[in-house]
Every structure is written in structure tokens, then in C-alpha cells.
Design a protein that fits this description.
The complex is a heterodimer of chains A (316) and B (674).
Chain A (H helix, E strand, L loop, with lengths): L3 H32 L9 H11 L2 E4 L4 H20 L15 H21 L3 H32 L4 H9 L7 H17 L18 H4 L5 H26 L13 H25 L8 H23 L1
Helix pairs in contact in A: 1-3, 1-9, 1-10, 2-9, 3-4, 3-9, 4-5, 5-6, 5-7, 5-11, 6-9, 7-9, 7-11
Chain B lengths: L4 H18 L8 H27 L3 E9 L2 E7 L1 H24 L5 H23 L3 H19 L6 H29 L7 H6 L4 H19 L8 H7 L2 H27 L4 H23 L4 H28 L3 H36 L10 H4 L1 H14 L6 H13 L8 H32 L24 H19 L1 H16 L5 H4 L18 H22 L4 E4 L17 H4 L1 H6 L5 E5 L11 E5 L1 H22 L6 H18 L2
The chains are: A mainly alpha (316), B mainly alpha (674).
Chain lengths: 316, 674
Amino acid sequence: MTTATGIAFQLLQSVFVVLAAPLLLGWVNQCRAWLQNRSAPSILLPYYTLAKLFHKDAVIAHDASPLFRLTPYVLFGCMWLAAGIVPVLATDLPFAPAADIIALVGVFALARVFSALAAMDIGTSFGGLGARREMLIGFLAEPAMLMTLFTAAFISGSTQLTTIVETLAHREFAIHPSLAFAAVAFAMVLLAENARIPIDNPATHLELTMLHEAMVLEYSARHLALIEWAVAIKLFAYTTIGFALFAPWGIAAAGDWGALPLAVAALALKLALAGAALALVETVLAKLRLFLAPEFLSTAFLLAVLGMLIHFLVQN
Amino acid sequence: MSGSPLTGSLFALVAWLAIAALSLLPGRDAWFARRLAFPLGALTGLVLAAFGLQAAWAPVEQMTLPLGLPDLPFHLRLDGLAGFFLTLLGAVSAGVTLYANGYFRDETPNRLTLIALQYHIFLASMALVILADDAYLFMVAWETMALSSYFLVTTDHRLPAIRSAGFLYLLIAHLGAIAILLCFGVMHGGLGDYTFSALRAAELSPFWATAAFLLAFFGFGAKAGMIPLHAWLPEAHPAAPTPVSALMSGVMLKTAIYGMVRVIYDLIGGVRWEWGLLVLTVGAGTTLFGVLYALMQHDLKRLLAYHSVENIGIILLGLGMSMVFVGFGQTAAGALGLIAALYHTLNHAVFKALLFLGAGSILHLRGLRDLNDMGGLIRTMPNTAFYFLIGALAISALPPLNGFVSEWLTFQSALQAPLLEHGVVRSLLPLFAATLALAGALTAMCFVKVYGIAFLGQVRAPRRPAQVPAAGVGQDCGGAERIGMAWLAAGCFVLGLFPASFLLMLNRICVALLGRGLPEGALESSWLWLVPTSAAQASYSPVIFLAVIVAVTGLTFLLVRRFYHGRVRYAPPWDCGYPEQTARMQDTADAFGQPIRHVFGPLYLMKRHVPAPDDPAPRYSLKIEDRHWYLLYLPVARLAEYVSAKIGLLQRGRISIYLLYSFLTLIALLVFVR
């Protein structure tokens, strides 16, 4: 099962995802600017920002503990691991069995706990506020996320993303109504987990409304760059998990190198569409009050449960 | 020593009793209790763990001791299940006992002697509970355990709060013991033979089997701390000295799980899926209740006690799933659930003991137990902070530590739901798994709160002067404490990284209890991979997971250093440019729980006083109470008082009245019994 080409491809894909992730963010920002009738920034702007941040001197608060300096690297490592496991271009990923979708949720939880701890490390008022809100969103989103994943796992009989993709992509074309419900639920969880509108506004530093930004206030320079990059990879990973579960077409089967160009094209198309859709959602919707987030995410949970029940009904 | 596990375990048990007796040796400054008792106790724990591990792989052994009442000898038996729990007891108590050596260093000789005596009797009684093979010996050991732990809880019996906590504990422990006694009575069905082999052989009608199940479930549940019988737990755990809390939470609660598994799976047998649904419902309720109340606490030890309630709920979820599957005849899936439950039992023992020891160091060296008085401890107590972080990550079910593995196994067990024929039960199982996901994420929030407030941030000025014992501020825990914590922290890693070998051991237990274990595909896996059913369905490799994270994190660090620079400048915190930051502006434990109070408000009994804007002396107060007190405990207490007051009317204190009673009884007997 584990071949040299497989390992080579695994490494290649991990590097590709890490490098390509900011592009998706740039594309979303560009689309949003167009939709809001502003002149759009370059699609490469996230890269310039990262480069600028890496060159700066890091400013760290006097009281920072080693945990504070370690966290950006841990975050980046977690996201890199997540991105390496999701079948983005092909299912030939020898490392993928090391973590199934439940473990993937665990990776995101690990990253979240570390960033919340780092936010509380300096002991500022905003850090604690951001940490507690982030954990609030986290515990609301996690059950919903798990139920969507359960629905997909029940359909394919596996919690391995690669197996799920193989069963869903290379089978007879059939419409699963349960997957439709799960897909909507997943999209809602994606918005919440990635700190997008309507749960959080990534473009704001407005003190009382911010969630994710409140946690990273004390970071600067290379640490901030790593965090921003990790955020981009997280969005990319979530989007590609969504593709793997609900639109796995075009992903190359194991060992099928000829299908790779097609896979790249399919991925680019799907990402362009998803990015535009995200920009549209962020333009049309307004940010919800913090305490409407439970309603938003419990709706997602209920949709996912409905999807699962429909699956059981159809199966009978 | 013949080298047989049962003789060896018995030897360890006797060694603990001997240590307890030797602690009474009169001597200058109780030198035995101070210097030798605890290290020897820890060593005995290690020996016991080794024999338990051996027993888990060895054939079943039995032994009859010529002790006890005439014609009622003590029967002992050591099988895989007992071996597993002996391993748990030995390994966890080794760490805790070593820590206790440092913790009790400053006790006066008299108190220390008593503590060492009760502590080792407590350990020995727990081992005896696990080894017992007849109802009589089991109850003797069970009561010894309850009493010795009661005396340990009330070590500081001069404080009224601790006395009442101890009384509540004793009361509920005895309610549970009565239920267990009745359960044995139901199971034996009038044959007069109370050995477990006789109970196992007895055929029960479905009605009596269910009655026995209910008695066992609630009887052992009272000891385990499941709702609604949990009330003693958040009172008794904080009252006890910390190593004792760690032992009670880590090990004693697990003897209740042992009893449950032993009685329900082994002695009653013929598990029904309806029982499983009851266990699942109670488990889900216990899980959510525990974590939601834990989030409201600001006393660290109380918070950890509520998390024990939560984790018992998680274990019950695994057990319940297993019972549902077994009841429907899906034995392989049932084995998976049982393995998840047992593995979580072991994991919880390890990380909860570790967390209690961390809390104990803060209490012991700083005199602090209220989170709102702590802050910035990572700078003055880096060792404690490091070990506590490992425990916190493990309990939050984060990969690649051990808490995650058992939750992952429980999820995998829930994912076997399509095997069930019953449509409603099939769709319920994933919902119980969602409860587990919610609880896991809430636990993560709670431990972000604990760690962020106690160890990170700036030092808070205590609102009242802390009573710092002799050790003084600025010190971290000493050598014995550190080794004890390191041992348990290493346990978190070993159990998290190499679960496959433990899976095989637990599978043997399942084969013994259920007749068969996991499917073939699961057992062929190597030590690197955790595969519960088949490699196509699910797999997880914590070692690769950790290796990749460490490698990638390290690589990132090197790349950043290679291509950019490592320059750092230190400055005051930024905090949106607000210049006058003080330590009081940080989140408190109560503030951190505010979103939870908002979202789950109706579940709490909140008494809140918010001062009016024109109040010259504003005071904000918030009190969160457990509804169970008002809905269950106080009515029952009132009823008991009412009934005893009525019965008390009989008690006149005059001998002629009592003679009249005897006379009337005799007349009645003569009339009715002919």
C-alpha cells in the first residue's frame, strides 16, 4: 500500500496545499471587493502580507511564557498535518490512515485549545475575551461537525477520508438527500470554524465584536505571519474536506497519474466557485450577535441530524 | 513466591496491610510513616501493576483462604478483568503514593501515622474488592474501602464543612452498599451459596434479572458518582487531602465500574438492550451535568471533582453502547463499546490523578484553591505547570494523548449503529455520540479556563491573605512530587501513543466476558496502528500523528529561522493600545463561564444579585446551585426526618413502656404464628 511514489506524492501535496492556501484567501478577498463595488486588491496580497510580516522584528509582551512563543508553530504544524491528510488531488496518501475524520476534528480542536491558551498567556482583557468566545464557538460547532461527518461515514461505511472519497466519487451517480442536508450543515460549520461572517468578521478589529482577532492581538511579525498562514490553510483544508465529502468528482484514484492534470483543473474550478460563494455569503449576510451563534450552530446540528435520520430511513 | 499472579497480588495486598500496621510503630517523629511508608507503598503498587498485567494474559486462577466466618471462607479469583483493574490500581496508586510522600512531609507525627495507616488500608481494600470471588468477601472489602476512605476524607475533621461532607459521603456510600447487597440477594435466588461461581450459574427470570441489574447499576452508580447519586462527590473530593482525592477520583470510582462490569456482564449475564438504553441515558445526563457544573466552579478541586462525574458519564456511554449491541446480538460491536469504556476507565484514572496532584501542589505550596486568586503560576511553578498541561490536554480529549483514544473508540462504537435492526435505537446511538462530542468540547473549554486562569496571565492579588504553609512562595514542587507526576504524565503519553497493545489485552477480557471479541481484521494490526474493526473502516496511528506534528512544527521553526530571523523585542502588552492594564482586568473563572451560563441558563439554579446603578456600595454576587438538592435530596431528607420523628414517638425512655412493647409483640406473635 505504501509506495515510494505514494510518499513522494504525499509530500508534494502537503507542500502544494501550504503554498496554495493563501491564494484561496486572496481570491475570496478579491471576489468580496468586486461584490462590494470596491477596487479589488491583488489576488497575491496575502503573500505580500506574509512576506512583510516575516521580515519584521517580533514584539513580545514582557510577561509572555514559552507557551506563547510555541503556539504559532504548533498551530501551523496542526494545520499542515490536516492539509496533508485531506485528499485534495488524489487518494494515494500513505499518511492519511494515520488520522481519520474524527482525528481530523481532534487536530482542529488541538489548534483551537493552543490558540486560546496563548491568548490568555499575556493576561490582557481582550485575550481572555477572545479565548472564551472562541471556545464557545468551538463547543457549539464540534457536535454539528461530527454529525455531518457521521452521515458521510454511514453512507460510505468508513471514517477514512480517502475511502469516503473513493466510494463516493467512483460509484454510480446517485443523489443522496441525506448528503444535501449534511452539506448545508457543513457549510454553516465551516463559516463558524473559520471565523467568517456571520459568526465573526475577519476584517474587523472592532473591539467588542471580534472573536478570532481578539486572540491574536498580542502577536506580531513572524508569529503573526504563521498564525495568518495557518488560518489560510485551515480555510483551505475545510473547503477541501467539504469537496471530499460532498463533491469528490475529479479527485484522481490511487496510482492514476494521468488523471492528475484533470484533478488540478477540477480543484481550481471548485475552489473558484467555493471562494466566490463564500464572498457572496459574506456580502449578503451581516454578522450575528454573539449569542445568536448558538442558534445558528444548533440549526446546523439539527440539519446534520436530519440528514442522518434520512439516511437511515432511505436505507430501510 | 511461586510467581503466579494471584499469589503475587495477594503478596502485594498483604504488603500494603503490613505497611499500614508498621506505620503505627512508635518512634521519634513517626519515622517509618514519614520516610518509608509511602515509598514502600508506591513500590508495592508497581509490583501489583506488574502482576495485574501478567494476570491479564494468564489463565484464570482461583484460591480459597481459610479466613472469614466458619463455613464461609474467603474466595479469591484473578481473571483478565480483575488483572486489568489491578494494573490500574497499582500503576496509578504508585504515582499518587510517591507524591503523597512529599505532600504529607509537614504533617504532625500523630496525623501522619493515622493517614499512613488509613491510606494503605484503603489501597489494600480496593485490591481486595477486585480479587474477591464471593459476595461476602466482596461486601467486607467494599465496606472497608468506604470506611477507610471516609476517615481519610475527614482528616481535617475539625472543620464543620468537612465533617458534613464526610457524612454525606458515608450516607450515599451506604445507600449504594445496601443496593449491592440486595442485588447479590436477588442473584443468588435462595440457594444459600454466595460464591460468584454460584451466582454466575444461577438462572434468573427476566424480571429478576432486570431487578438485579437495576440494583447493581444504581448501587455501584452511587459509588461511581453518576447522577442523581453524585452529590457526595463534589463535596468529598475537595475535603480530602489531595493525594486521597486523586486516589478516590482516579481509582476508587473505578472499582464501582469494575463492580458494574463484573456483576452485569459476568454474574447476571444475558445483557438486554433495554438496560443499555437506560445506561446510555443516565450516562449522557451524567456527562453533560458534570461538565456544565464543572464550568461554573472556581474552586479547583471541586471543578476536578465535577469532571470526574463527567468522565464516569463517558464511561457509562461506552458501557451502554456495548450493552445495546450485545443485547441485539452484535457481540463484536459490543466488544468495541466495552473496550472503549474500559480504556477510558484506565485513561481517566491516569489523567485525573495527575490533575489532582497538580492542584494539590498549588494548594500545598501556595495555599490557593480558588482559581480567582491564582494567575501566572507557569512562571513560578514551571514543573507543575508542565505536568498539569499534559493532564489538561489529555482530559480535553486532544490527540495524540490518551483521552482522545478512548473517545475515538467510543465514537467508532457509535458508528457501528447501522448493524442494529431496531430503527429507533439505531438513530439514537449517534445522538449519544454527539453528546460525547459536546462534552469533549466543553471539557476543552473548561481546561482552557483552568489553565489560562491559574497558570497563565498575570499574578492576581489574593482577596484574602493565603495561608501559605511552611514551604513558602516561589517554590515549585519537590522531587517525590515531581516523580509522581512525571510517572502519571508518562502514562498519558504511553496510553495515548501505544493503544494497540492495550486493545489486545482488553480484547481478551471481552472474549472471556462476551464469548467473542473484535473482528479478525482488528487484531492483525501492528502496534503502530489502532484499528477497531477493519483497516478500510477506520484507523488511527497516534505515533505517526505525533511524529508528523513534531516534525512539521520543527521544520517550520527551522525554515523561519533559515530564511528570516529570530529577532525579538520585549514590550508592554498591546491590548488594543489600552495603557492601564492591571491584573484585575483579566478574565476571572466566573467571567470565563459567562457564555455557558447564557447558553445553558435554564439548566442551572442561579441566584444572582446585580447592584443597581445608584448603589453606593455595589456588590455583585452569583451563586450556582445544583437542582438535585432541591428536587431530590432535601425532600428525601425531610421525609426521612418526618418518618424518624414519627418512629421516635415510640421511644419514651421509660422501662415500663418498653416492657409493654415486648409484651404486645409476644401476644401478637402468639396470635399470628401458630
